[in-house]
Design goal:
The structure is a single chain. It is built from 6 helices and 16 strands. With 248 residues, it is of the alpha+beta class. β10 and β11 form a beta hairpin. It is flat and about 50 Å long.
Length: 248
């Protein structure tokens, strides 16, 4: 488990030829999934466009470096539209106010932690009065630009340090209303897909949406039906996110 401060500033090393490709400038948060999807890379001679590494191309995040297989893992941000969309959302987490869904202000986020193997955010460090406490990421409902919304019971499950957070890794905290009738993974997935259908059905698509092979899946100006949305879901979460960001 790494804090953002432990990752930002690390050199990026190509395993294939053993050269430094730059250094990590920032982390790109996917607010829908609660993950780090891209690492923005900075290098002095890259002046024209911003570069990024998709997290899935990261081999390892160690104490002294981030490693990738080869130089091609570092991509121009302009060729990965979803990365551009996420960057423009400006979800930084740090300095965001942390509030429960019932409107109680807990404090201000000062740091966040991530699983360096998967990119999943695991905890948010919050300044509460004169103390620092960590909110487990599975309590976060919304990652916003200036505000994080958490379940109201998050305050009762704060942990005092990252070591405690590590011991809780892999456990789940469900909203209290759901503890009455536990859901299976399939139930939760079906519910999420239905919410996506309800949210997107009837909206107009603002640009061509392509599948994982780069072929047009849904054309610009299409009015979405359930069948369109299901096809996007079958392509994977990245396609659904791209679709949801380009409708009106």
């Amino acid at each position: 488990m790494k804090s953002s401060a432990q990752v930002i500033g690390l050199p990026v090393i190509s395993i294939q030829n053993g050269v430094q490709l730059g250094q990590v400038k920032s982390l790109v948060v996917n607010p829908e999934k609660g993950t780090i999807d891209f690492l923005i890379v900075d290098q002095e001679n890259w002046e024209i466009s911003m570069k990024a590494i998709p997290f899935r191309h990261v081999i390892g995040i160690g104490e002294f470096a981030v490693t990738v297989e080869e130089e091609r893992a570092v991509l121009d941000l302009n060729v990965i539209p979803i990365a551009n969309e996420l960057v423009n959302k400006k979800i930084t987490i740090k300095q965001a106010k942390v509030m429960t869904r019932k409107g109680q202000l807990l404090g201000e986020a000062t740091e966040f932690y991530m699983d360096e193997e998967t990119g999943h955010i695991t905890g948010i460090e919050v300044q509460i009065g004169n103390e620092l406490r960590i909110v487990r990421a599975d309590h976060v409902i919304t990652y916003g630009k200036d505000l994080l919304i958490v379940h109201e019971d998050a305050q009762q499950t704060l942990v005092s340090n990252v070591d405690t957070l590590v011991t809780l890794k892999g456990t789940q905290v469900e909203p209290l209303i759901e503890q009455i009738v536990p859901k299976t993974v399939d139930d939760e997935l079906d519910e999420l897909r239905q919410k996506q259908v309800d949210m997107l059905k009837g909206k107009r698509v603002l640009k061509d949406i392509v599948d994982v092979n780069g072929q047009v899946l849904i054309s610009k100006d299409t009015i979405l039906t359930k069948e369109h949305i299901v096809r996007a879901q079958e392509e994977g979460p990245d396609v659904v996110i791209e679709l949801s960001m380009n409708v009106e």
